[in-house]
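In this section we walk through a basic example: taking a raw amino acid sequence and producing a predicted 3D structure, encoded as discrete structure tokens. The instruction is simple. Fold the sequence below.
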Amino acid sequence: MEQQLVTEEDLFESKPDVVSGALVFKGTRIPVEAFFENLAAGLSLDDVLRNYPGIGRDRAEAAILLAARNFSRAAA
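The resulting token sequence is shown next.
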């Protein structure tokens, strides 16, 4: 069975009254930008999840796969 693809709308939200409207993981105050900046700085996914346990591994992995999918589209 094919797994349903997760969309940005499934994972993220932006509200003016939450972190000044920054894109955050849905239901949290954790900016998506901070998540990827931590990974880019060399932290492992486990380290990032220890720092931001509210994300959860499933959503973190889905965010990474979504970013990769969007990058692949942009490169095509």
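Looking at the output, two observations stand out. Residues 38 and 48 are 7 Å apart (CA to CA). The helical segments are 8-11, 32-40, 45-51, 57-75. In the next section we compare this with other chains.
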